[in-house]
Design brief:
CATH architecture of the largest domain: 3-Layer(aba) Sandwich
Number of domains: 3
Shape: globular
Number of helices: 25
Distance between the termini: 50 Å
Strand order of the largest sheet: 2-1-3-4
CATH topology of the largest domain: Rossmann fold
Helix content: 40-55%
Largest sheet: 4 strands, parallel
CATH class of the largest domain: Alpha Beta
Number of strands: 8
Strand content: 5-15%
Radius of gyration: 21 Å
Bound molecules: iron/sulfur cluster
Length: 436
């Protein structure tokens, strides 16, 4: 069998000195204490596959699939190995050899690259999710993904998407005398389909900070579900569509409000479209909206707003934002600047929530265990609201809290700012629950 993706990263895996620094904090290692579920073990397997010492098997594919791509090992590794890229390469080679499940392949290849089909599938999922919202707990245990006998929290998918709302929206324009910058907003599918209010709040806050915001309607999924599943063909198709949608825009930055999209566009895109200058140019323009707001001094304006009742707020660091894009101080600066808001640092704020895209569907039991840790940390912090900056984390945290019997709302930083500064935006569905 040919391992062309792994072969391209042979040097990377040879850097491993087997020090085991990557084991501390690795979620899959910490729940299993299995060497093959740590970065060191996975690298060893990858080397053995390349040398022919090991043959491909479903067990090996499962070990790579179990990785959450949380970057904790990459952060700890003294050899600075790009572990997440390595494990993606392994999944791509194993998927090419063993194939992907037919349903997964159908969704990745024939739904994900087409926004209208994706929207249609989201609406069908939203209808199915009504059962989760209305089924009594006694029945809920028989629904898929509810093995622990608790209802799952599902996203609100039956409303209009952000793509449509942007077209109807009154363009606010830059607020403080001319645009400081002109930026393009890449919303990502989750914000487009499940959290459109968040997308509107992001755009509105950027405009209030003096930025002109354009929303290219041609944008498609960032490709993360395909990339992390090892479907390089679909990743490339999506990357090309996004490069086409953004490369000719006269903008200073591409703003993201989803950590995974940001990490994909700034880090994975140049790998997916290797040698394509347009991809490199686009990648360096990617910036998280919170980082841009702080660069523009938006927090000084927030401080002046009247604010509402007193709130205690904590923040969850999405893995791809803190470790992928180096953004963790900025959301805290914004939250702390809000009047009547007390920021409380919770234990393990940067520990992976266990959402990790399809991981929560592929491994619901393990995902729920990671969620339990976060729910405990939130409960101990005694806060009124949990804030994060990734829609996938937002949904996972809302689900984990609901399963732990807590009703603490979870929202994006953009939603909290909108709520506290009362700039007209609503925070509908802030628990991330379904359209009942
Ligand atoms: S920390 Fe890095 S060098 Fe050390 S065992 Fe893990 S992957 Fe290898
Ligand atoms: S990316 Fe996360 S889950 Fe995967 S090996 Fe590294 S620390 Fe473990």
């Amino acid at each position: 069998m040919e391992y062309k993706n792994l072969l391209a990263l042979k040097r990377e895996m040879e850097k491993c000195v087997r020090c085991a620094a990557c084991q501390a904090g690795c979620p899959t290692y910490e729940i299993s204490f299995s060497e093959t579920l740590s970065a060191r073990g996975r690298i060893r397997i990858a080397r053995a596959l390349l040398s022919g010492e090991l043959k491909q098997s479903p067990r090996i594919a499962a070990d790579f699939e179990m990785c959450l791509s949380c970057l904790k090992c990459a952060e700890a590794c003294p050899a600075k190995i790009d572990t997440v890229a390595l494990f993606q390469a392994a999944r791509a080679d194993l998927a090419a050899a063993g194939g992907m499940g037919i349903v997964k392949k159908l969704i990745l290849r024939h739904v994900l690259p087409f926004p209208k089909r994706l929207d249609f599938m989201a609406k069908l999922t939203g209808l199915a999710a009504l059962f989760y919202a209305t089924a009594p707990n006694a029945l809920a245990r028989f629904l898929p993904y509810s093995s622990q006998g608790r209802r799952r929290t599902t996203p609100r998918l039956l409303r209009g998407n952000l793509r449509g709302l942007v077209q109807q929206r009154h363009h606010q324009g830059p607020a403080r005398g001319g645009a400081l910058r002109r930026v393009a907003y890449f919303s990502g599918c989750m914000t487009d389909l499940a959290y459109p209010d968040t997308g509107l709040n992001v755009m509105s806050q950027l405009e209030k900070a003096g930025v002109e915001v354009v929303y290219p309607q041609e944008q498609v999924c960032c490709g993360a579900p395909a990339w992390f599943a090892g479907d390089n063909e679909t990743s490339r198709e999506l990357a090309e569509k996004n490069v086409e949608a953004f490369c000719d825009l006269d903008v200073d930055a591409i703003v993201v409000s989803c950590a995974t999209c940001g990490s994909m566009l700034s880090h994975a895109l140049p790998m997916i479209m290797e040698g394509d200058k347009r991809a490199e140019t686009l990648a360096v323009k990617v910036i998280d909206f919170q980082k841009l707001l702080v660069e523009l001094g938006a927090e000084k304006e927030f401080e002046k707003s009247p604010g509402g009742g007193k709130l205690r707020v904590t923040y969850h660091d999405p893995c791809h934002l803190k470790r992928g894009m180096g953004v963790s101080a900025e959301p805290r600066i914004l939250i702390k600047s809000l009047p009547n808001v007390e920021f409380v640092e919770m234990a393990g704020a940067d520990v992976c929530c266990g959402g990790a895209g399809a991981f929560t569907l592929d491994h619901p039991e393990q995902s729920a265990r990671f969620g339990q840790f976060k729910a405990r940390a939130v409960e101990e912090s005694g806060v009124d609201i949990v804030v994060t900056a990734c829609p996938s984390c937002q949904l996972q945290l809302a689900d984990a809290l609901a399963r732990a019997g807590l009703d603490t709302p979870v929202m994006s930083t953009a939603d909290l700012v909108a709520m506290v500064t009362s700039d007209g935006a609503m925070v509908d569905g802030m628990h991330g629950d379904s359209d009942d």
